Task: inverse folding
């Protein structure tokens, strides 16, 4: 139980293009999902909290116009990296909280590795 | 002071030994704590959580929580080379909210 998927698992794009990453909770409904970014040999950095049916809450320093988050249903949140640049190359990971379980537990998706050329 | 702190390691242990990882936190209001394991190039996976003082065991893993001293630890018994990974300690900023992660402790289990 508590399975989270992400798609795609890796993506390579040209500088200036936009990339959409999907995060799905497969066997539970997630009212809250989280988006993280991780650079090599560094810890997780929370980017934003995504709540179903409302606007995402972004962490300080994260550009909301560059990283568009949409949580349109209880099982799907999307992160769109707009006008991507090489410095956006990173490992993007989503997580979801299952309200039926211990409320603070987050289950992580497998991650999406983004490379911007 | 960071909210959740861990020794970055690497913690090198021989196969079959006990690996002991520590984590300290600054917010006395934190009620629950999580241990995640992250293999290189992969996303974190939940090992266990603990919210009561004392020990909690799950297979070869034991989490220990001491709220008075504000530390939580993870013991890995009979360490295996497959346990070589980075272990992340996390605590929620508030109940039902986002998690604050420590920097992680890298564990190397040598055959």
Result:
């Amino acid at each position: 139980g508590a399975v989270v998927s992400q798609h795609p698992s890796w993506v390579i794009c040209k500088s200036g293009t936009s990339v959409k990453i999907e995060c799905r909770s497969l066997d539970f409904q997630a009212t809250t999902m989280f988006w993280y970014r991780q650079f090599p040999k560094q810890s997780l950095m929370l980017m934003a909290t995504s709540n179903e049916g409302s606007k995402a809450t972004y962490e300080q320093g994260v550009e909301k116009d560059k990283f568009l988050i949409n949580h349109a249903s209880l099982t799907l949140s999307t992160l769109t990296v707009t006008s991507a640049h090489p410095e956006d190359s990173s490992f993007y990971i989503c997580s979801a909280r299952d309200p039926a379980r211990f409320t603070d537990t987050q289950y992580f998706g497998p991650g999406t590795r983004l490379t911007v050329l | 002071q960071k909210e959740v702190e861990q020794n970055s390691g690497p913690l090198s242990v021989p196969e079959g030994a006990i690996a002991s990882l520590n984590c300290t936190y600054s917010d006395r209001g934190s009620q629950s704590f999580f241990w995640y394991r992250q293999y290189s190039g992969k996303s974190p996976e939940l090992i266990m959580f603990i919210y009561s003082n004392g020990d909690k065991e799950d297979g070869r893993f034991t989490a220990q929580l001491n709220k008075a001293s504000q530390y939580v630890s993870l013991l890995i018994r009979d360490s295996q080379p497959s346990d070589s990974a980075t272990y992340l300690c996390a605590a929620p900023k508030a109940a039902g909210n986002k998690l604050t992660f420590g920097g992680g402790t890298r564990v190397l289990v040598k055959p």
The radius of gyration of chain B is 13 Å. Chain B touches chain A through 22 residues (CB under 8 Å).
